[in-house]
Amino acid sequence: MAPDTPNPSPEVLSLEQPVPPAKVSLLSATKAFATYKGIVEALQPVTMEVREGEFLVLVGPSGCGKSTLLNLIAGFEFPTGGMVLVDGKTVSGPGFDRMVMFQEHALFPWLNVIDNVIFGLKRKKRLSSSDRREVARYYLNLVHLGKFETAYIHELSGGMKQRVALARALAPNPRILLMDEPFGGLDALTRERLYGQAQEIFARTRKTIVFVTHNVREAACLGDRVLIFTSRPGRIKREITINLPRPRGFYDPNVSRFAGQILAELKTELAEEEGVESHESSSHGHPVLPVADYFLADGI
Predict the structure, then answer these.
(1) CA angle 52, 53, 59 (to 5 degrees)
(2) Contact assessment for residue 173 and residue 167, using Cβ atoms and an 8 Å cutoff
(3) Position 271 in a domain
(4) Residue 271, class by beta-carbon neighbours within 10 Å (0-12 exposed, 13-18 middle, 19+ buried)?
(5) What is the DSSP letter of 232?
(6) Listed range (56-70, 226-240, 275-289) with the worst mean pLDDT
(7) Of 224, 185, 234, which is closest to residue 68 (Cα–Cα)?
(8) CB–CB of 261/217 below 8 Å?
(9) Is 117 within the bounds of a domain?
(10) How far apart are CA 107 and CA 155, in angstroms?
């Protein structure tokens, strides 16, 4: 008789868990822009994947190509080299499967709150007018603004405007949400409240999110993974997995620990950049200006 097969260890079982498929893939993607001064390289070859239902955060020095990478995924820009794929297909332009939330809310001041949310649904021809209104109300309730559907934009606070913008981005039910520093212009208290709501919405909708920020604590609080970029031309310097349960408190000590790791990587990158500039400037007889810690918006 054959010996009994031993039970697999927990480590083996964990390896057998299915891995979510890649929703977004960049394969040696590069981007350069032609200017009157010549060619400016924004991105060095970047290879990365964003998994289905993942909250991926991009962090790096200003001008390192984070927003450019977001635009490549959105289809607003096209790579100079390499490929950008969504669901295994080359991105050929913008699509309803991807929605972008910008730093500014970009709401229409002549429309009230619910009509701003409905606006993004008008190209869904299969929905009736009453269907669109029902969908808009659902997402306004999701961002806790159901009582303000008839208000106009000038009557809202900055945080409320960003929540309306989030509801408008979610309403067409995109598979991928691209967020470019959406909370950067808000005060610290409002941002902290929105972090909790953003995690609640992420848990309920399980959207695939790519999020750009300069704030290291924001990155640690929101992300499943954080990709840290070098200075321009940007490339991925390091990946940090944030293996903390949700919801996460903005000032949780464990969030601070990961924020410290991200900050250390950024400071190393800026120190290396400053060293290069110092060498170049000293060879030309020019003083070197200090690099500001702009990413330390709220400390760690």
Answers:
(1) 95
(2) no
(3) no
(4) exposed
(5) S
(6) 275-289
(7) 234
(8) no
(9) yes
(10) 13
Are 68 and 184 members of one domain? Answer: yes
For the chain, how long is the longest CA-to-CA vector? Answer: 84
Residues 179, 210 contacting (CB under 8 angstroms): yes
Report the sign of the C-alpha dihedral through residues 107, 199, 133, 131, in that order. positive
Q: Output the pTM of the full model.
A: 0.81
Residue range 88-112: mean pLDDT, rounded: 90
Which residues, other chains included, contact 16 with Cβ-Cβ below 8 Å and sequence gap of 6+? 8
> By the 8 A CB rule, do 191 and 274 touch?
no
Last residue of a domain, one of 128, 147, 173: 173
Q: Which position has the token pair 């330390």?
A: 296
DSSP line for 51-90: ETT-EEEEE-STTSSHHHHHHHHHTSS--SEEEEEETTEE
Q: Could you tell me if 226 and 196 lie in one domain?
A: yes
Type of residue found at 46: V
The pLDDT, as a whole number, for residue 38 is 85
